[in-house]
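Homework-ish question, so no full write-ups if that breaks the rules, but can someone show me the predicted structure for this set?
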Amino acid sequence: MKHKALLLSIVVALMLAIASRGSAPAAAQGAATMAPTASLMDPKDVALKAAGGKQLGGTVTILGVLGGAEQDQFLSIFKPFEEATGVKVEYEGTRDLNAILQTRVDGGNAPDIVSSPSVGLMIDFAKAGKLIDLSQFLNTATMNANYGQELLKSVSIDGKLYSIFDAVNLGGLIWYNPKTYKGPNPPKSWDDLDSWAAKTAADGTTPWCIGLESGAASGWPGSNWIDQLILLQAGPDKYEQWWQGKLPWSSPEVKHAFETYGKIATDSKMVNGGSTAALALSFQNGADAMYAQPPACYLHLQASFMGGIINGNFPKLKPVEDIDFFPVPGFDASSDGVRLISGEVMGMFNDTPQARALISYFVSTEAQTLVAKTGNWMSANKFVPVDAYPNPFTKRAAETLSSAKAVYYYGSSLMPSAMSDAFWKAVLRYVQQPDQLDSILADLDKVQKDTYK
Amino acid sequence: MLERVGQIIAASISIPLLAVVYLRVVESVLRRLPHKQQGSIRPWLWLAPALLFLFVFLVYPALNTVFLSLWNANATQFVGLTNFAHIFTDSEMGTAIRNNIVWLALFIPVTVVLGLLMAVMTDRVSYERVAKAIMFLPMAISFVAAGVIWKFMYDYRPPNSPQTGIVNAAWMSLVPSAQPQAWLVNPATNNLAIIVVAIWMFAGFCMVILSAGLKGIPGELLEAARVDGANEYQAFFSITLPLLTPTITVVTTTMAISALKIFDIVYVLTNGNYNTDVIATQMYRELFSARDLGQASSIAVVLLIATLPIIFVNIRNFRRREITP
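A: Not a homework solution, just the prediction itself:
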C-alpha cells in the first residue's frame, strides 16, 4: 500500500501542471538597497574562479519546480558556468517538489542541489541533517554585504548557512488596467483604497478580482493576502511570532487579517463573481475579468510575476499602457513602504566540487545580474544594477524594492510545509464558509501545535 | 536520456536471460535427485523467484507498514494505538471516511449496472466490437489525465463572462435561465462530479468483464427458455442474471476496492478541498505534507483492513468457480 502511494505520488507529480508559486521567508531589512554599480566581471571568469580555475567537467543535478519557458530562462543563467567549467547542469522540474524530494532523499537518491519556493521545506531538511552547510565555502562577509545579514538569518541555523536566495519576486503589488481604473493612484493608505472600492461596489461594479485555484496548492494566493495583511496591520514583531508558531492563529491579530480579507473575498459586491468565482478561478486567470468589456473588476493583488501572466493571457496588451501596478499601501505611516518578497532558495544535498562551484558562481553579483536579465525574476543581491532589468515590470518592481522601508519574506513559505498546506486549505474553507472562522482558526492552532516541535 | 534507454534495453534482455539460466541450473540440480523428490521440490524452486519478489515488494512492506503505524512521526517512539485513535476522532478523517462511504454507495452500483447494461445491449448488435472498444476507451486513459480533462470540462466562470467549460455550456443551454455552476467547489455537487469521472472511467471495464461472462452462458439454455414461452425480461432475470452472479460478484468487489483506494482523480480535481477528501488523499497528506510516517501508515492499515473482507469474498468466489466450472 505504501509503495502504491509512493508510485502514485510520483506519477501525479510528473503529470500535474499546476504551479505553486508560493514564496519564501524571513525579515530582510533593506535587502535590495541598490548600491552603486561596481564594475562587473565576465560571468565566465567568475564561473572559472568558482571552480578553482579548473575545467571540472562532470555534471550537477538540480531539482526544482520550474518548467517550460521559465526553466529555459533559469538555465540561461548557467550557460556561462557550463561553458567555462565544462560542468553539465541537469535540471529536473516538478510541480510536486515536496513529495518527489522526500521520496528521493529517503531513497538515498537526492539531487545535488534543490531549488525550492519553500524555505520551510529547506529548513526541515536542514534540521534533519540532510543539507550541506554552505558557509564552509562561501565567504560570510561577502554574503552579508551582498544579501544582508537579516535575510540570510532566515536560512541559517546556529550560524550555519543552509540556503542561498536564487530568484525572487516582489509581492503585494496591486495590478490594474490604467485605461479603466480611475481610483486613487497610488492610494495614500489602505483606507483610501478601501473607501474607493466600497464606493465602486455601491455603484454596482465589483472592485476586486481574485483567483484562488492552483491545483494541489490551491489557496496560496489567499494566504499571500493574509500574510500581507498581518504584516501591515499587526507589525513585523507579531508577524515574525506568527510564522514562527509563537502567536496562535486564534489571536486577535490573525483573526483581524482573515476578516479584512473576508470583507473582500466573501462579499459578492466586492469580488467579481463572489466567493464562488474567487474559489473556482485559477490564479493565472484571476485578473482576466479586468480586461472584459466592460471590465468586471479593477484591482488584483499579486506578486511581480503577474504582469507577465496577464500579458500572456492577452498578448495584445502593452505593459505600462494597459497593465500596471502600484504597491499595496500601508494601514498607517509605520506600515507604509513595508514590502514582502517571495522566491526560491537553493540548498545543497550532495557535497561535490561541481555543486560547490555552481553555488559559488550563483551567489556572485555577475550571475545574479543574469537573473535580473531574464526579466522573469528579481535578484536579492543588493549590487545588481537596476539597468539590468529588461522589462518595465521587473525594473519598476526592483525600484519599489530598493526604496522599501523594510523587506520581509512571506510567512506562509517560512512555516513548516504541513502548516502552510493547512493554511492554504483554511483560506479556501474560510472563503466558502466565512461564519466558520473561529473553528477554522482553532483547527489551525491544532496543526500549529503539532508541526512546530 | 540515452543512458536510460541503454539501461532499459539491458534490463529487458538480461532479466529473461537470468530467468532462463536460473531454471537451467535448477533443472540440472533436480535431475540428480531421485525421481520422487524431484516432483515435490520442483514447484517450489520454480516459484522461488516470484515468491522472493512478492515477499520483498509486497509482504515485507505490508508488515512494515503495520509495524510503523504503531510508532510516532519519524518512527523513534512507540505510541501504541494513538494513531488509530486519531483517525477515528479527527474531523477531517471523519469527512474522508464519510466520503468514501458515499463513493462505495454510488460508484459500485452505477458502474456495475451501467456495465451490465452495456454488455447486454452490445451483445445484440452487429457492431459489438466497435461499440465495446469505444466504451472501454476511458479505461486506457491515465487517472491523472482523466482528471485534467474533466477539470477543463467542469470549468467555471462567473455569470458575466463566457463559459469555457463544456458542462456549464451544456447546462446553460439545456436549462434556460440557469446560472453557471461551480461543480467542483459547491459542496452539493462536487463529490458527485468527481464520482461521475470515476464512473466514466470504470463502467467500460465492468462491461468487458461482464460481457465475457455473458458469452459463457450456454445459448441452448436461453433458447430452451424462449421455446418454453419466456419473454426477454423473464429470460434475462431468470436465466442470464443468476448465471452471471459469480461474474457480477467479481466486478462488484473489484469496484469496491477501486472506490476505497481512489486517489488520483480527487487529487487532481480538488485535492480534497471543499469536503471532497477521501481516505487516500488524507494518507498522502500525512505522508508528504505532514511527513508523519506513523499516521500515514495507520491510515494505510485501516484501508487494508477495510479491503480484506472484499478480497476474501473475491478469492472464495474464484475458488468456487474452479471447482464447479
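Now go work out the reasoning yourself. Hint: Chain A touches chain B at residues 1-5, 8-9, 11-12, 15-17, 98-99, 102, 124, 215-216, 218-219, 272-274, 276-277, 279-281, 288-289, 292, 296, 417-418, 421, 425, 428-429, 432, 443, 450-451 (CB under 8 Å).
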